[in-house]
Specification:
The complex is a heterodimer of chains A (about 350) and B (about 625). Chain A is an alpha/beta fold. Chain A has helices at about 40-50, 70, 90-100, 110-115, 120-130, 175-180, 195-205, 230-235, 285-300, 315-320, 335, 340-345; strands at about 60-65, 80-85, 105-110, 135-140, 140-145, 150, 185-190, 210-215, 240-245, 260-265, 270-275, 305-310. In chain A, the strands form two sheets. Chain A has a ten-stranded mixed β-sheet with strand order 2-1-3-4-8-7-12-9-11-10, sandwiched between helices. A two-stranded antiparallel sheet of chain A has the order 5-6. Chain A is globular and about 75 Å long. Chain A starts with about 35 loop residues before the first helix and ends with a helix. Chain B has four domains: about 10-190, 3-Layer(aba) Sandwich (Pyruvate-ferredoxin Oxidoreductase, domain 3), CATH 3.40.920; about 215-395, 3-Layer(aba) Sandwich (Rossmann fold), CATH 3.40.50; about 415-485, no CATH class; about 490-615, Rossmann fold, CATH 3.40.50.920. In chain B, the strands form five sheets. Chain B has a seven-stranded mixed β-sheet with strand order 9-8-10-11-13-12-19, sandwiched between helices. Chain B has a six-stranded mixed β-sheet with strand order 2-3-1-4-5-6. A five-stranded mixed β-sheet of chain B has the order 16-18-17-20-21, sandwiched between helices. Chain B is globular. Classes of the chains: A alpha/beta (about 350), B alpha/beta (about 625).
């Protein structure tokens, strides 16, 4: 996205989605990130995916913590409420919001610092609760707003712009999420919109916690030689393992998939994700096999991307809590407050 | 208050020293409740260790025909069941009092005091002869002393049987075995001691319309009745029982019988940071949400409380205060978070606090807290403490008005948003400092971006000086509105008296008794119990209208006094602190001694009173 103001008037020929809205109506405020920032490409993918799914803008809830990544929730779907909370604590805001109203689409946008350092605890526990949300990490291996410190996702041997070398092992959110039981774990690259958009669509339709770790180069502090999160390095080393085509419930599967390669998975709302494996030996439905495969490739310096694990059968927070389908925030007061007679009954135990 | 033998019907204190985890709680509750059911006002306080089994624990029962249900500061009957604490327990008995102990093992040291009557009962031996199994014998030994006391105090055995039948409705065999233990102690006492003692129970009619309830249970009931649907917390003593009670009441009243669906969300968070985050997220999304915690949790919640203040999100937090600093003494009481709560978080922040004085007020203030949180769009901290929260208090029946409907504050719905050209989150159209808010999922026209970063009145990011200041100045106007909406102090005053007591929360009972005692010494004082922060107009007026003010509170650093000097115009020189911070609930004798230490009434100048150990003798 550009930092220049966009014209408010939309051209009449702009395509409209199923609810009659143009892409323009899924955009947000003008980005104040650096020109060329990977995050802005992710924002564009989010706009595309929300438009493509024909989400009602007011049903989109955008949540973030603090950092460059966390600013981006202001840059898409201006018709949805946003909450830019405190550093590393977005998952708890998301948990509370989701508890209050289970019917909305919750999109959390975080960074590698926000998720893997200060927010590691909340990230892990949101996964354990199987909080129904899409959690995007805009991962650039560096702290931007405080000018270039390594983050917890920086690889060993990576060099800072000023020449310092990182010797601490990185925390990989994909492997971590797999270990913690996440049912939807994906990795992508901000420069690969064709891969990213269907992943976002699928993640939004997945019931439960959906993680997409998006490698998103920082043009200002981490795009130099010696960085393993630069555009050049990422383009060279990322390797799609599984393509995911998202097919909403109302649409037929029309593409012609070669036998044996395509694996259609039905989601809770009837939509399907068709997984197409690039490598026949990769199994995106086996937690242990997927995890081993990813680690093996990592040793060779390759980032496997795509929908790396899909296990859509998990019980989300509301299933465990047995919450009604109707959102808690709209239950009538009469259903909540037991009344004076009930109080008298209760008090009889305290006499 | 003299050295003559104690001979007071319905006016004495029993203290029971036992070992944690030996089942003494049920014996103590049984005793307290049977006195309550005799129509006699009673207080029960549990002094327990931060431990699961093995450390010393005490239970103090005060019987008061006059309805004084705070600690008096004296002990008339000591039941010494814990060898480890015998020596200090013996010392505590007032002259003329009684000491009951387990004479299965001889305790010559116990006989050292000649000014108390020592009553030995072979509790362990009797129980070992009558019951099988180590655990049963230990439990029954404790029930057995309740039987001894029943004989000595002339408690109604039939009433005790009824209570056991209620407690063990699902396990009737336990009624018989417990009753057998009661009878063992009862018969031994009847056969060996002159029963009843001069201090005994005589049925009255002073507990009708009252209940025995702890503050955490009452607060939880308030949350249920106020319609709170999202509860998130991290376990911490002494607040956990509030959440447990909320869950239990919801499981009883909020579960759809047909579907089994639960009309509430109960979330055990990973820490207090997450707990308050969940409450803020849920409240922002239009649910009534709350958490309960104690001092260490408040410390952790600071950053989020600042966010909720600045982003103007409702939240209800119960702080059941315990002894600090740091981990402190988790099972002892204090009022030591007053400053930390009032100014929680960095930057210019001030939070609305409510100060309940007993379980009854916990119930009503819980409901009020949700109304205030939504009306003012800010966190409300209900400052209870361990004494209120975990001890059973005698208080008036809780009443519920079926006409009550929640005050959801200024929330715009889709219909109200429709005619607006554009919705702006932080404008002040009504001049009361309270803006209008919208909820997610209602209308794209109401969408806005909540943030803790600098914002202008339209809700967009700003670093502009004037725009920033306009918002924080408006927040100050909102603070002024808060001072008009929060509960006023309770004032007990007569004209012509220029000495006042100022206090808050659980000090109330002890102060009310102390005022009566002081009156008998010829010292008249007025009394103001502050019930909220910000202070209402009446607080400043009361302070201005008195020459000398005793500020009574349960912390070392005079935190209420600090708040009064910071937030009102009162002259520091007029304020005298009476600070009780041992971890035990404050007693009336402490307050009497403190006031008399400062002002010497004519009667006492002649009588030359002795002040020892904080108690007037």
């Amino acid at each position: 996205m550009t930092f220049l103001a966009k014209p408010k008037v939309a051209h009449p020929s702009l395509p409209k989605n199923a609810i009659g809205l143009t892409r323009r109506q899924y955009e947000g405020a003008i980005s104040t990130l650096c020109a060329g920032c990977g995050h802005d490409s992710i924002t564009a993918a989010l706009v595309e995916a929300c438009w493509g799914l024909s989400l009602e803008p007011q049903n989109v809830v955008k949540l973030s913590g603090i950092g460059c990544s966390s600013k981006t929730t202001a840059y898409f779907v201006s018709g949805g409420h946003g909450f830019n909370s405190v550093h590393g604590r977005m998952p708890s805001i998301a948990m509370g919001a989701n508890a209050a109203n289970r019917r909305l689409s919750y999109i959390g946008v975080s960074g590698d610092g926000d998720t893997l350092s200060i927010g590691l605890g909340q990230f892990c526990h949101a996964i354990r609760r199987n909080l129904d949300m899409l959690y995007i990490i805009e991962n650039n291996g560096v702290y931007g707003l405080t000018k270039g410190q390594f983050s917890a996702s920086a690889d060993i041997g990576t060099k800072a712009r000023k020449g310092e070398t990182n010797y601490q092992p990185p925390i990989d959110p994909v492997l971590l999420a797999m270990t913690l039981g996440a049912g939807f774990v994906a990795r992508s690259f901000s420069g690969d919109k064709r891969q990213l958009v269907p992943l976002i669509e699928a993640g939004l339709r997945h019931k439960g916690f959906a993680l997409i770790d998006v490698l998103s180069p920082c043009v200002t502090f981490n795009d130099h030689e010696g960085s393993t999160k630069s555009y050049a390095y990422t383009r060279e080393h990322y390797e799609p393992a599984v393509h995911a085509d998202f097919i909403p419930p109302e649409r037929e599967i029309t593409a012609d998939y070669p036998e044996g390669e395509a694996l259609p998975v039905v989601m809770h709302d009837g939509s399907r994700i068709v997984l197409r494996k690039c490598d026949a030996s990769y199994d995106p439905t086996s937690r242990s096999a997927a995890s081993t495969f990813i680690q093996e490739r990592m040793k060779d310096g390759e980032y496997l991307t795509g929908l790396l694990l899909l296990e859509p059968s998990g019980r989300d927070f509301h299933d465990v809590n047995a919450t009604p389908d109707e959102p808690l925030n709209s239950l009538p007061f009469e259903k909540l407050s037991p009344g004076s007679k009930a109080l008298e009954n209760i008090l009889s135990r305290y006499r | 208050m003299s050295d003559t033998p104690v001979s007071r019907v319905n006016d004495f204190v029993i203290k029971i020293a036992t070992v944690n985890g030996t089942g003494s709680a049920s014996a103590n509750t049984l005793l307290m409740k049977s006195i309550f059911r005799s129509g006699v006002p009673v207080m029960g306080k549990n002094y327990f260790p931060s431990n699961i089994q093995g450390l010393p624990t005490w239970y103090e029962i005060r019987v008061s025909r006059d309805g004084y249900v705070a600690r008096s500061g004296r002990v008339d009957v000591m039941v010494a069941m814990n060898a480890e604490t015998y020596s200090r327990d013996v010392k505590e008995v007032a002259p003329g009092g009684y000491l009951i102990y387990d004479s299965t093992w001889p305790r010559p040291a116990l006989l050292k005091r000649e000014d108390v009557t020592v009553l030995g009962v072979p509790l362990a031996r009797m129980c070992n002869e009558s019951f099988n199994g180590v655990r049963t014998r230990i439990l029954m030994k404790n029930i057995c002393y309740a039987g001894v006391l029943a004989a000595l105090l002339e408690l109604d055995l039939q009433r005790i049987r009824e209570m056991l039948a209620q407690t063990y409705a699902k396990k009737p065999h336990l009624v018989e075995s417990n009753m057998q233990a009661i009878q063992l102690g009862y018969s031994y006492a009847k056969a060996n001691f002159p029963c009843p003692l001069p201090l005994r129970i005589e049925a009255m009619d002073r507990t009708a319309g009252n209940i025995l309830i702890d503050g955490n249970t009452a607060a939880a009931l308030g949350c249920v009745f106020a319609g709170a649907t999202v509860a998130a917390w991290y376990p911490i003593t002494p607040s956990t029982s509030l959440m447990d009670a909320y869950k239990a009441f919801c499981e009883r009243t909020r579960v759809d019988a047909a579907s089994g669906r639960r009309n509430f969300a109960f979330i055990q968070a990973e820490d207090e940071l997450a707990a308050i985050g969940m409450v803020i997220g849920a409240s922002w999304n239009g649910a009534r949400a709350f958490t309960a915690t104690s001092g260490p949790g408040i410390s952790l919640m600071n950053e989020f409380l600042g966010l909720a203040y600045y982003a103007e999100v409702p939240a209800v937090v119960f702080d059941v205060q315990r002894v600090g600093p740091s981990t402190g003494m988790p099972t002892r009481t204090q009022q030591c978070d007053l400053m930390a709560a009032a100014y929680a978080s960095h930057g210019d922040t001030r939070h609305v606090c409510l100060y309940p004085s007993n379980p009854e007020e916990c119930f009503y203030m819980a409901v009020q807290a949700f109304d205030l949180a939504e009306r003012l769009q800010t966190p409300i901290l209900v400052m209870s403490d361990l004494d209120i929260g975990m001890n059973d208090w005698m208080c008036r029946d809780l009443k519920w008005d079926d006409a009550y409907r929640p005050d959801r504050g200024k929330v715009l719905g889709a219909a109200e948003l429709e005619p607006l050209e554009k919705f702006h989150r932080f404008l002040d159209p009504d001049g009361d400092g309270i803006p209008y808010r919208t909820l997610p999922g209602v209308s794209a026209r109401g969408a806005y971006f909540a943030r803790g970063s600098g914002h202008n009145q339209y809700g967009t990011y700003t670093e502009d000086a004037a725009e920033y200041q306009a918002v924080v100045d408006r927040l100050l106007r909102k603070w002024g509105t808060a001072a008009k909406l929060v509960p006023a102090p309770v004032i007990q005053a007569s004209p012509g008296i220029d000495i006042g007591i100022v206090s808050l929360g659980s000090c109330d009972g002890a102060i009310r008794e102390a005022i009566d005692v002081l009156g008998r010494h010829g010292v008249s004082v007025n009394y103001m119990r502050v019930r909220s922060f910000p202070f209402t107009e009446q607080v400043g007026k009361f302070l201005a209208g008195h020459r000398l003010l005793f500020v009574v509170e349960q912390n070392r650093d005079a935190q209420l006094r600090s708040l009064l000097t910071l937030e009102t115009e009162v002259a520091k020189s007029k304020l005298r602190s009476l600070l009780h911070y041992s971890g035990l609930p404050i007693s009336s004798s402490f307050i009497v001694a403190g006031v008399l230490g400062e002002i010497r009434p004519p009667q006492l100048q002649e009588a030359k009173p002795r002040l020892t150990g904080g108690a007037l003798v």
